[in-house]
Write a structure and sequence with these properties.
Layout: E1 5-6, E2 11-14, E3 17-23, E4 34-40, E5 45-49, E6 53-61, E7 64-68, E8 71-76, E9 90-93, E10 98-103, E11 107-115, E12 123-125, E13 131-135, E14 142-148, E15 159-165, E16 170-171, E17 176-177, E18 179-182, E19 186-188, E20 190-198, E21 203-209, E22 216-222, E23 226-229, E24 236-237, E25 243-251, E26 260-261
Antiparallel strand pairs: 1-23, 2-3, 3-4, 4-11, 5-10, 6-9, 6-11, 7-8, 7-10, 9-12, 13-14, 14-15, 15-25, 16-24, 17-26, 18-19, 20-23, 20-25, 21-22, 21-24
Length: about 270
């Protein structure tokens, strides 16, 4: 199986805590993006101490309590299923901090990481403050929740968004990339995609490919899978009958999202 396609591991870490994904800079091909998913039973607690790493805690489903030092954020989370399509709550935690996430109910939580040097304030990113954006036309439509866009100075490196794509549509399309540190034309950002489908037995297709085809993989992606994008274009196709959700995490040397479309397919934008 491709190293870019990561299947859920469902590893019991401690009582009431299940580690669904555990992608670190040590065990994945990415150098700037780390990603975990944890499932929490009511009352279960997950604690982590960060060194030179920042983290965005996203309440995917259920409700959680988050403690960072002396700061406490209670009953975060707005939905029982990501396909309710409402923005959710998140908490940004800077480097050299310890945080704890507790399940107020049964909950699934995403932990998004990137290397960080400058300590910044902890921030509760309220669901009500998350901008909702509609992109695309025809069969290239998707809805975006901008949790940590590059216009928000909350983080040092992290960019975090949620994307919904309807059945029969394409997303991250036309194919685009951001793998060159060549501003102002293009920025270098690695990326991870955490996928869910509705109904959950569905699948999507995601291709990751570079101009020189040193990377060229097309993957069948199922519910709760993660796709890693170290470089290259990375479009997603959603079959008829199924709806797609994915959580994107991006990070790189400069916190700017400046992408470059595949010139072979850019003509699609001129329809």
């Amino acid at each position: 199986m491709s190293r870019l396609l990561q299947k859920p591991m469902k590893k019991n870490q401690s009582k009431g805590v299940t580690l669904v994904h555990d992608l670190t800079l040590e065990n994945s091909p990415l150098e700037y993006v780390g990603f975990k998913v944890i499932d929490l039973s009511p009352g279960a607690k997950y604690t982590e101490s960060l060194s030179k790493t920042e983290c965005c805690i996203v309440a995917l489903t259920g409700k959680i309590h988050v403690t960072v030092g002396s700061e406490k954020f209670r009953n975060l989370g707005t939905r029982e299923n990501v396909f309710e399509k409402m923005p959710t709550d998140s908490v940004y935690v800077s480097n050299d901090q310890t945080f704890q996430v507790e399940g107020a109910t049964a909950a699934r939580v995403a932990l998004c990481y990137s290397p960080s040097q400058d300590q910044l304030p902890t921030k509760h990113i309220k669901a009500s403050d998350v901008a909702v954006e509609n992109r695309g036309i025809l069969s290239n439509k998707r809805m975006v929740h901008n949790i940590l866009p590059d216009s928000d100075p909350t983080a040092n490196s992290l960019l975090v968004v949620e994307v919904y794509t309807e059945n029969g549509n394409w997303s991250s399309y036309p194919p685009h990339k951001h793998d060159q540190d060549n501003l102002p034309d293009e920025s270098f950002l690695e990326e991870s995609y955490y996928h869910e489908m509705n109904p959950p037995q569905g699948f999507v297709f995601q291709r990751v490919y570079t101009d020189d085809r040193s990377i060229d993989e097309t993957m069948t992606v199922e519910n709760s899978d993660v796709v890693l994008v170290p470089a290259g274009y990375h479009p997603v196709g959603v079959p008829d009958g199924y709806k797609s959700y994915y959580l994107n995490v991006m990070a790189g040397p400069t916190r700017i999202w400046k992408f470059h479309n595949d010139p072979d397919h850019e003509w699609i934008l001129k329809r």
